[in-house]
Design goal:
It is built from no helices and 11 strands. By secondary structure, the chain is an all-beta fold.
Length: 144
């Protein structure tokens, strides 16, 4: 739980109640949680930002959410091989976390995927790998 005016400081609590009905007028579901309130920062009716962690996937393979593409056969990504050629792989996608998405099947940890310029990529074709300007994960540009 985070306060909108202080998003850096989060507080972890326990979900204690989940209503099984969605309110028609607002589209909301009522929840109740128990949280520590040291400093008396929380009070009834105060607006907070909540993030519910439903499950944790250990060792998940994450790719940027813009890497997967759709075809008639389902989702796929272009995987860059050692010789800078690409292969198209069908993938099974899981939950999304921010700008990343879990790949349940189809890509192994450490493999590089095309994240930009997928329209110019053909299976077996060569790609140019652009190094990112920041210290984030490497991106590839799928141009010939």
């Amino acid at each position: 739980m985070r306060l909108p005016d202080n998003p850096e400081n989060s507080v972890t609590g326990q979900l204690t109640f989940l209503n099984n009905a969605v309110e028609n007028a607002t589209g909301t579901v009522n929840l109740r949680a128990t949280i520590p309130n040291e400093g008396h920062r929380f009070w009834p009716g105060r607006f907070v930002n909540i993030r519910l962690v439903l499950s944790t996937i250990h060792g998940a393979v994450l790719v940027p959410a813009n890497a997967p593409q759709m075809s008639g056969k389902g989702s796929f990504v272009y995987v860059v091989k050692q010789d800078s050629t690409v292969e198209q792989r069908q993938v099974s996608l899981g939950q999304r976390q921010g700008d990343l998405i879990v790949v349940e099947k189809g890509v192994e940890a450490g493999e590089r995927v095309v994240t930009n310029g997928q329209l110019g990529v053909t299976p077996g074709g060569k790609v140019r790998i652009d190094q990112p300007r920041d210290a984030g994960s490497p991106s590839t540009n799928g141009t010939k």
